[in-house]
């Protein structure tokens, strides 16, 4: 009996050690924020309204051959929104929409990924906006190239979310006849890491 318990404990310890080592194997990527973009496309009165957030922080650990150990964490400064219209930017930051003063950041976190074929991957994560969190699946195309001792990755993806699900739309902005519920979130991330 004691031997069986010892063997079980040893197996559990070995599994834990292996999983810890696995998590440490996912390499860290350094994001080039000058080349990267986190943006969106909304609609207003039938016209597309593109915009982006100029400030965001990212922590990326990703390995195509070790998805179990991969993770991403993106924090977006709502006050950095720009749409080409100062009045529109102020409206987006106002209490009726994102309420940037009370909820200064949006956040996307994922530690589960799946390969969808070819260069397509899906990050299964959770998105927090205006203090509300819901799960989302973010599909993206990944291209990785090598130049000497440096790997460069470009991840390009988008997902459509329902803004009212996160409470983005109070008062007149709850009406979806002028501003539809659907908003497309876009990412274009450029990152590098040492090869090998």
Automatic annotation (TrEMBL):
Domain of life: Bacteria
Ranges for domain Lipid/polyisoprenoid-binding YceI-like: 28-192
Signal peptide: 1-23
Pfam families: YceI (PF04264)
Keyword field: Signal
Protein name: Lipid/polyisoprenoid-binding YceI-like domain-containing protein
């Amino acid at each position: 009996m004691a031997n069986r318990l010892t063997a079980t404990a040893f197996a559990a310890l070995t599994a834990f050690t292996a999983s810890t080592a696995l998590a440490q194997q996912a390499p860290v990527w350094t994001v080039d924020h000058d080349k990267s973009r986190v943006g969106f496309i909304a609609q207003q009165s039938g016209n597309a309204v593109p915009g982006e957030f100029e400030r965001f922080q990212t922590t990326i650990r990703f390995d195509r051959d070790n998805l179990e150990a991969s993770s991403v964490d993106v924090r977006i400064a709502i006050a950095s929104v720009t749409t080409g219209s100062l009045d529109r930017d102020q409206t987006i930051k106002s209490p009726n929409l994102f309420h940037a003063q009370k909820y200064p950041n949006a956040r996307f976190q994922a530690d589960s990924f799946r390969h969808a074929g070819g260069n397509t991957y899906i990050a299964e994560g959770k998105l927090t906006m205006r203090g509300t969190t819901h799960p989302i699946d973010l599909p993206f195309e990944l291209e990785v190239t090598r130049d000497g001792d440096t790997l460069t990755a470009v991840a390009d993806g988008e997902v459509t979310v329902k803004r009212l699900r996160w409470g983005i739309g109070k008062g007149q902005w709850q009406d979806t006849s002028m501003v539809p519920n659907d908003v497309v979130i876009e990412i274009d991330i450029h990152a590098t890491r040492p090869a090998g």
